[in-house]
Amino acid sequence: MEISKVTLEIFSKLEQQWLSQRESSKKTRILSIDGGGTTGIPSGAALIHLEDQIQAKTGNSGSRIIDFFDIIAGTGIGALLAAMLNADDGNGRPRFTAREAVEFISDRNSELFKVKNVGVVHRRRMFSGKSMEKVLKEALTRDDGKVLTLKDTCKPLIVPCYDLNSSAPFVFSRADASQSASYNFDLWKVCRATSSDPSMLKPFHLTSVDGKTSCFAVDGGLVMNNPSAAVVTHVLHNKRDFPSLTGVEDLLVLSLGNGPLSNSPHPKVSGSGHCLNQCVVGIALDGVSETVDQILGNAFCWNHADYVRIQANGYLNGGVGQTVSMEKLLNERGVETLPFGGKRLMTETNGQRIETFVQRLVGSSLPPSPCKNTTVSQHVDGR
């Protein structure tokens, strides 16, 4: 009788362990990278640390971020990072490591965001679209000369912009690109579209590879600076690529911010007590990202460990160098959105939170190698 009890306990523990591993392994893993700024230092630091930790935990220096995520999304500078980490080198492997992608953006930053003076009477400073496009083409053209498109990614990709033609958000996705050439766009054009800050760049006109779909794009950060909600919604409704999902309990989400846009030492209120215009703009831009974070925090309130948001807390205003900034981001204590309002300062640093996330990411079993040749069925509406 005692042996039966011991045996029952052993089998019970084995069953719980098996169920735990099964639960962890079936989760769809999402990586989302915010727009904001021109350097991408906060998200870049997080990505480098993320890939370093993946390699350390797996003992494989060839492991890449995209090996451990099922879909990646990005806006603005975050979209460029997402595309570079995801772009297929022709052999089913990403063209860039995290460190290579971040260093490329850092080294070519003055060309990506080259400032020029425009206008005759009313002179103003703008970014050079031609200079940006040259760098984007270089990053997202394969060594054999092939210009990469949305279909040429290791895993599904989501990138938002705002279309002036339809006066609505326009979301580029590999799912739509796999359906039809009418929704397949060159990757460099997608990154150019989502980076078209109307205060610094002209709207960007782009067409699909077959010329049938067009978009007159401005900055995706105006409507989806934090693309986490867009990619979560996409995954939950994309039954072709993610047929087994039923709800957020099946998701594991890592969202990387690029620091608050409105965190400024300048006064936010005038002497008369009114909010200053620049303050209102900043609040509106940051409000989009913070609202998304709040919504997802609520959605994951019963399994909050499945949603991790890494965000800088405004240290960049000090004008410190890139190396110091990256170290500061990882050493800052993390901030967590509380269910139904408010935030709390955590005991863990951002670096430690990434390490904990990686432990869950790779803890159960190694995922398959990246593969873009998924079976695709036709949409009901033909898209």
TrEMBL record:
Leader sequence residues: none
Motif segment (GXGXXG): 35-40
Motif DGA/G mapped to chain: 219-221
Domain PNPLA: from-to ranges: 31-232
Keywords for this protein: Hydrolase, Lipid degradation, Lipid metabolism
Alphabetized Pfam families for the sequence: Patatin
GO annotation terms (biological process): lipid catabolic process
Superkingdom in the source lineage: Eukaryota
Enzyme class: hydrolase
Alphabetized GO MF terms: hydrolase activity
EC number: 3.1.1.-
Record-stated family: Belongs to the patatin family.
Domains (record comment): The nitrogen atoms of the two glycine residues in the GGXR motif define the oxyanion hole, and stabilize the oxyanion that forms during the nucleophilic attack by the catalytic serine during substrate cleavage.
Functional description taken from the UniProt entry: Lipolytic acyl hydrolase (LAH).
Protein name: Patatin
Taxonomic source organism: Lactuca sativa
